[in-house]
Amino acid sequence: MFDKLKSIFGFEKNISEQKPVPPSEDSPKPKKQKRKKVERTLTPKEQATANGDPYISILKVDIDPNNINNGSFILDWNDKFLINLIKAGYKQKDSDTDNVIIDRWFQTVCRNIALEIYEQEQADPNNRDMRVVKTKDLGNGFSEIS
Questions:
Q1: What residue segments make up the domains of the chain, in order of their start?
Q2: Of 50, 74, 103, 140, which is least packed with CB atoms within 10 Å of its CB?
Q3: Residue 137 host element (H or E)
Q4: In a 10 Å sphere around its CB, with 0-12 CB exposed, 13-18 middle and 19+ buried, how is residue 106 labelled?
Q5: What is the pTM of this model?
Q6: How many CB atoms lie within 10 A of CB 134?
Q7: Which residues does 81 contact at the CB level (< 8 Å), separation at least 6?
């Protein structure tokens, strides 16, 4: 009822009841907000794969707390690295899985490291077993070795 009286006397309607005025051609249009592109950095594995390079990494090393001589490694690799291993002869059977091929390579690397350390220790005269072998001629083709 009050609205009718207001309209008779020329008062404006409630703001909530006013209809929105369509924008004219002269009025500026609201600008759309551009979404900022978040640049995602590639992981080393993704970079190597994108470049066509082989990639291998140790993700985690687990050691048995009850026996520190036992442990395991979790490795991550790309397809290019696996293909290189297959070309190098690490795939011995058609039934070899990717994990078997990688494990065979990793065992070879570990074995080579152990052999290299052993050879270096043996090459050092201070680390060699310095046993002296004494030979005593007993005559008639017999010898005593101690």
A1: 44-123
A2: 140
A3: strand 135-139
A4: middle
A5: 0.58
A6: 7
A7: 54, 55, 56
